[in-house]
Amino acid sequence: MKVNYLYNSSFKIETKNHVLILDYYNDSVEGGERNSSRGVIGIEDLETNKEMLVFSSHSHGDHFNKLIFNWAEINPYIKYILSSDIKAENAAADITKISVYEELQIKDVYIKAYGSTDIGISFLIKVDGITIFHAGDLNWWDWYDVSDEDNKKMEKMFKEEVAKLRGEAIDAAFFPVDSRLKKSYALGPDYLIKELAPKIFIPMHFREDFAVTKEFADKNRDLYTKVFEITHRGEKFELTTDNDRL
Fold first, then answer.
1. With left for phi above 0 and alpha for psi between -120 and 50, is residue 88 left, alpha or beta?
2. What pLDDT is recorded for position 242?
3. Nearest-5° angle of CA 177, CA 123, CA 77?
4. Could you tell me which of 51, 29, 31, 55 has the C-alpha nearest to residue 41?
5. Coil, helix or strand for 147?
6. 9, 205 in Cβ contact below 8 A?
7. Which helix (H) or strand (E) holds 160?
8. What are phi and psi of 4, to 5 degrees?
């Protein structure tokens, strides 16, 4: 599995037979080539012989951009899997809407929508023998400027949703590590790792605050789960059974 960090919660994931793009929204890059190695999806990414699936977990502007439908003009075989809260009409695109706890089978790819602690959904995806979980905006959002009562409700909601994922053997979890939560930034990711023990953990929802990914990776060096540090936009990870236990 090859993974490029695009921006915020967006990644390009390439497996043996498939290319997945998740929660793409930032299509801007300064000068030079346009490709996933620079954090955007360009023509060379779209002109693939592999099956391409594009996912959007919800309608927030930092997770969805309707320009993704323009990609169908370059690759008419792209399939779009969108949370049902997204209002999207595009006759040229092959769009499937999915709601919480619904399941899809798109050829040999299995998809199940789980819940969020904000709007929309999270995705469990089984593709080419790999199980991927992309959290969308599912997190233990423990904000320093809201009431203890609201934060307790959030904790309960988050833990109940994670419990629904127990029993899934997750190879790669993509999950928020968001420094805006200040001292509480690790509550959600720590709990998810403890409860679900994914083989690898890739942080997201930090935009360009790469330092928080290093801090989180450094404090979790000794876990069974391998936690990745991300250092720049477009960074590529090549994950194999030998070096990263996929």
1. beta
2. 55
3. 120
4. 29
5. coil
6. yes
7. helix 148-163
8. -115, 130
Q: Transcribe 87-133 into DSSP letters.
A: ----TTSEEEEE-TT-EEEETTEEEEEE--SSSS-EEEEEETTEEEE
Number of separate helices (H) and strands (E) present in the chain: 5, 14
Nearest in space to 205 (alpha carbons), one of 177, 172, 229, 226: 177
Length of the chain (residues) = 246
As given in the structure block, the two tokens for residue 147 are 């009431």
Q: In the structure encoding, which two tokens stand for residue 94, read together?
A: 């092959």
* CA distances in angstroms from 3 to 6, 109, 137, 234, listed in the order given: 9, 18, 20, 9
pLDDT of residue 246: 63
Which residues in 53-64 are b (16+ Cβ under 10 Å) and which e?
A: bbbbbbbbebbb
Domain range enclosing 155: 2-244
DSSP tag of 132: E
Provide the token pair at 46.
């779209």
Question: Which of 68, 83, 149, 150 has the alpha carbon at shortest distance from 116?
Answer: 83
Q: Are strands 172-176 and 200-204 parallel, antiparallel or unpaired?
A: parallel
Of residues 85, 67, 89, 146, the one with CA closest to residue 121: 85
Number of domains observed in the structure of the chain: 1
Q: CATH number for the domain including 157?
A: 3.60.15.10
- Compute mean pLDDT per 10 residues along the chain, 246 residues long, and list them: 98 98 96 94 97 98 96 96 90 90 98 98 98 98 97 98 97 98 98 97 97 97 94 94 56
Phi then psi for residue 182, to 5 deg, are 55, -130
What pLDDT was estimated at residue 88? 84
